[in-house]
Design goal:
The protein has 155 residues and is α+β, with helices and mostly antiparallel strands. It has four helices and seven strands. It has one domain: 2-Layer Sandwich (Alpha-D-Glucose-1,6-Bisphosphate, Chain A, domain 4). Helices cover 25% and strands 35% of the residues. Pfam families: Polyketide_cyc2 (PF10604).
Length: 155
């Protein structure tokens, strides 16, 4: 993927992907259930989420407590069961600042799935947040993809 609005030559869309030896449905369940997300977070950023928030549709909001204690409301923007999910985080009670986390799964057959994780900050305008967005690289995203793969592959 490429970005249509680079900042200082840097794309505002960052991706990472891998082929994972597990069915898409198994992988998607771990992504769509916020309580499971800290188990495979490769960046040690997600602290906890209450049980019972399993996402089932775009428009839903789930809450996550970060490792530093801040609470984020995650506004689901894309949802296709077993295939795609995306959300825009915001501080509790505030509008979304414009960045989005997305997961796409493609069933490759034989119990294998192409997993792609995307961080898109093309709509982010808050200068304070842009500094952190710039620091989010494909390596950061790959760490989560790799942890998710290890979990579902039993490594």
């Amino acid at each position: 993927m490429t970005s249509s609005s680079p900042v200082d030559g840097q794309s505002r869309i960052v991706t990472a992907s891998a082929e994972v030896a597990a069915p898409a449905a198994v992988i998607f369940e771990l992504i769509a259930d916020p309580a499971q997300q800290p188990r495979w977070d490769g960046n040690d950023n997600l602290g906890s989420a209450a049980e019972g928030q399993r996402v089932r549709a775009a428009g839903e909001v789930f809450r996550m407590t970060l490792t530093k204690g801040a609470v984020r409301e995650n506004h689901v923007t894309v949802f296709e069961e077993g295939r795609s999910i995306a959300w825009r985080p915001s501080p509790e009670g505030e509008p979304t600042p414009g960045h989005e986390w997305r997961w796409d799964l493609v069933d490759l057959g034989d119990g294998r799935t192409r997993v792609t994780h995307t961080y898109d900050w093309t709509a982010l305008e808050d200068e304070a947040r842009i500094v952190k967005a710039r620091a989010t690289t494909s390596a950061n995203l790959q760490a989560s993809v790799d942890c998710l793969a290890a979990l579902v592959e039993g490594r």
